[in-house]
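Protocol step 4 of 5: obtain the predicted structure for the target chain.
Materials: sequence only (see below). No template structures provided, no constraints applied. The aim of this step is simply to have a reference model before the mutagenesis design in step 5. Sequence pasted as it appears in the construct record:
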Amino acid sequence: MSELDLVRGTLDVLILKSLSGGSLHGYGVARWIKDASGDALLVEEGALYPALHRLAARGWVEADWGLSENNRRAKFYSLTPLGRTQLASEASSWDSYVAAVGRVLRTDPAS
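Step 4 output (structure tokens):
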């Protein structure tokens, strides 16, 4: 499968989901999304870091400095309680959206 463009607004929920298992640095977030999507979704740094900053400004994630796997200083992001609530809400909305699009795609326009 070729790389897929992220539907507008989905990057935030993918980042929130990536952090639901614990803190990650930016590269770890991008790698988790890539791996979880079977290499179909690639998040560029130019989109990732502004999204992380936006989520932090909304109070959905928080950041702390730490050491990466290769002993480099890195900012690690984690979900806040508000972020967990937002993730649940976004996941529910996404499930409803996917179900509605699926219904449309299964409907015969001639009927």
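Step 4 remarks: Residues 10-105 form a domain with the Arc Repressor Mutant, subunit A fold (CATH 1.10.10.10). DSSP finds four helices and three strands in the chain.
Proceed to step 5.
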